[in-house]
Fold this protein.
Amino acid sequence: MTGEMDKAGSIAGHPKGLYILAFTEMWERFSFYGMSALLTLYMVKDLLLPGNVESVIGLGAMRGLFEFRGAMSDLAFASIVYGWYAGLVYFTPIVGGWVADRLLGAKRTVMIGVLLMSAGHLAMSFYSTFLIALLLLILGSGFLKGNISAQVGTLYPREAESLRARGFTIFSTGINIGAATGPLATGLLAALYGWHAGFALAAVLMLVALVTYAFGQRYLPEQRPVARERTKAPPLTTAERRQVWFLLAVVALTIPAEIAYPMVWSIGILWVDQHVNLATGLGLVPSSWFASADSLGAILVAPLLIAFWSRQARSGSEPSSVTKIGIGAALVGLAALMFAFGSLDAAAPGSVGIGWALGGYLLMGLAWMYYWPTTLALVSKSAPPAVTSTLMGVAFLSPFIGHTLMGWVGSSYDKLSPAMFWTIDAAIALAGAVVILTLRKWLMRGLETSTAQ
């Protein structure tokens, strides 16, 4: 039941349902990031090559649509495809939130999402169904993402802001464990047995996510859709509408970070593949493994952040949610600057020191833990109850817009030096951080005033 702690008991002060949701999302992120780590490399090195590209249903028409300004390189086309795919994955949660709120409820909607994503990963195993696979993954993720996050919020009383924020941090740690291990496993399989073997593993792990979620149903609160009772949801009050507008402002201000950060999963992997020295005593490290590095950074820092924020909360010095979001955006910019500095004197392929790449990726993970779980926790706490799932879906408009723009920004990569490209990426995130930190007091005051009314 919304606003009540899970009556089935708790683990380490948090409801058991939190861990069911975290494990479900962990397996889903394993499969999603495991596939995403291969996607751009797969397109550039295999799918778009003569003899393969001709068999992909609908790809010629899509390329013609994207080339409205003239012909583009395969790398630029792959960047834009990745950007639209990653962006739409974060747009469809609005649809999924509406379906959950009005038609099916969160539990059934999540089940459907997992099944659609399983089918999508299987379809990635064939050249011809590449675009069909992306469509299934986009729809499935939309049904799953916002509704899983919304269920986390329902496990806590509305007044337990700090506990809820730590709960979302634990939930996000599950995301990062899956995101870290997925690229390692699929990248290894792809290197040993081919691209499609890596995609097949992602499909299997989606089915594990389904079993985990089904097993934990008794620990999750029931959310009845409004439409089932054929009653019209009451209109939002003036104070609730004010809450919505302030939340939308906070979400919009995370867009610059969501342009700069996900670049590491697309152009970042290509940059590592082309410019970073990957030689070790045991042989070459697969470049796709770097898609795990930012998540590894988030995992390593999560317990430290939880302890740090808990101590600040006890002493009354914990930064506001908006301030944390601004700090995270600034850290994204600093991480991108590490890539730029590493590239300054590295003209030859494979000449960038691996420390620059690894350090930047790890710092990206810390940045993400500062701004994204905090954003979700803030929306969960401040959203009017009647539209919680919908607004959790709306929160994903930021990564939708950011990832889509990221694809277009990334399409200029082969026209610039790596140092210049990463400097531009850093400038985008740092500009966003300046705006957030400048407006932080006004935004928090507006949210607190609306909640109190």
